[in-house]
Prior knowledge:
The protein is mostly helical.
Amino acid sequence: MNLEAIWSRCVGSGNILAATRRLRRGIAIVAFCQTVVFAQAPSVATPPSVPAAGTIDQYIHRAWDTLSRSMTDCNSLIDPKLKTAPVLYLPQEIEEPPQVAALRTQCKVDVERLPQRITHIGEIDPRSIKLPGLLYLPNKYVVPGGRFNEMYGWDSYFILLGLLRDGRVDLARGMVENFFFEIEHYGSILNANRTYYLTRSQPPFLSSMIRDVYETGLSTMSTGPKRADVWLLRAYGYAVRDHNLWLSDFHRASDTGLARYFDLGEGPVPEQEDDSTYYPDVIRWLLAHPDTPTDYLVDGPDQPNAAQEAELAKTSCDVSLSHVCARAHVDGHWLSADYYRGDRAMRESGYDPSFRFGPFSGSTHHNAPICLNSLLYKYERDLAWMAEKLGKQDEAKQWNAQADARKTAINKYLWNATDGMYYDYDYTKHEQSKYRYLTTFYPLWAGLADEQQTKGVEKALHWFEEPGGLAMSTLNSGTQWDLPYGWAPPSWIAIAGLWKVGDIPDARRLSENFSRTIRTNFDHDHTIREKYDVVSGSSQLDVATGYKTNEVGFGWSNAAYLKMQQLLAETAGKK
C-alpha cells in the first residue's frame, strides 16, 4: 500500500484530527495511519497487542490478556514476520488435542505433524519443513507484542516477573510448563515456538523462572507446600535437561570452561524475510568502512549460475534453499558463512544486533560472554537449591562444585580488576574484549561478584547511566542494542543486581529514571515500547542499520516497570 493510499484510508476513517495531533506531538504520521488502516483491514492479519487504557497501570494490567495467546485463539497463528498462511505443527508423538481440531474450522488453519520425533535441538533442519509454522504449546502464554507473536525464551522470564507481580500465578506457571513441553517434544527451550527456531535456544532463565514461580506463587497456594514440592521435583528434571544443553560441545567455548552462544542452523535466518534489506545493509556498511577489518565478506556474482551457486553455498549461503540468501548481496559482495554463524549465535543471545562482537556482532560464536556464563552460574546455584529442597544432597554438592568451577573460569577470563568491569572473552584470539557493555552487571544479579568486584562494577555505572536510564554500551553504532538505547531486560538485571548487593541509592535512582521514561512516553501516545532512547528519553528512534522498528506491547517493558515500582515502594526511606 503506497503512502497516498494509507493517508486516504486514514482520513476516510475519521482519524484525521487524531493523526494531526500526533503529527504535532512528533509522532510519524505514516506510522500512525498505518496502524489505523491495518487495524481496520480484515484482509491484513495483525494480532492485537495494544490494550485501551487511561493509565499506565491499567494498560499493563490489561496487556497480559491482550498479549495472551493459546491454541483456542486464531490470533496465535498469525506470523507478522513472514505473513504466510497459518500452519500449526504438532509433535510427531502426541495425539491431536481437542482444541486443535477446533482450530481447523474456526481459524481455517492447516494442522500438520512434524516429520519426526525430536529429542535434541538441531535434529530437524527447518528448511526441510515445507511451510514455516507455529509449534503447538498446551498452555496459554504471553507474547512480547508487535511482530513477535509467539512465546520467546528470555522474554518470558521478564514477562513472568510482571505476571507474578500482578497476581497472575496460573498464567506464569503455565508458561513455565510450556517450556517443559518444549524440552520434551522439541528438544530444548527454543528461541520461540516457530519451526524456523528449531536450531537455537535463548539465554537460560528456566531455573530462575522455576524458583520465582515456586517461591512467589506455588508455595503459598491453598493446595499447600506438599503439592508445590511435587511440582518442583518435576521442574528439577526439566531444568537439569535444559542446563545440559549449555554443556554440549557446540556451546563450549573451547577449553575455557565457559559457554558460548551457537545456532545449529546455516545461512541467513528465514524470519529475516520481513526486513529484506537487513543483510544487504550489513554489506553496505562493511563496504563503507574498509578501515574496520573483518572476514565477513566474500566475492561472488550478483546473478550466479549453477556452478557459482554451488560455490556460494560453501563460502556464503545456499541460494537455492533460501530466498533471504538470494537477496543478500551488493555489487558482487556476499556475506561469509562464518558471518552467518555469528549472526545466528547473536540471535540466540537475544542482543540483536550491536557491535559488541564485531560489526553487527558477526563474531558472537567466537566469544564466551559474561551474560551467558553469569546465567549458568546462577543456574547451577539454583539447581543446588532445588536439589537441597528435594533431599538430594549429593546432587546439590555436585551443582555447587560446578558453580564454583565456573566462577573460577569467569574470574580468570572475564574479570578485569584494572577496569573494575566484566568483559567478554574471544577464545579464538585468546584476548579479553574491552567493549563496555551493560552485561557487566550480570554477576551482581547472579551473586558471583565478591566485595571488590562489586565495588568495581558500581564505579563503572557512570559509563552507562543516561538521563532516561541505562544505555546498553558506550558506542553509538547505529544499531538497536548499543548507545543510546535502553532495554528493560538488562536494565532490570543491573538494577536488581545493585539492589541485591545493597546499593539502594543507585537502584532507586535508576528505577526512577527508567520508569519516568516509560511513563512519559506512555502519556505521549498511550503505548509501551520494546526499547527507548535513554539519552533523549524518547520512544521515537532513529536506528540507522538493522532492525529499525520499535514494537508496541510490550511484555518485558511492562514487567520491568512493575518491578521498578515494587523496588521503589519497598525501599522508600532507605539508604
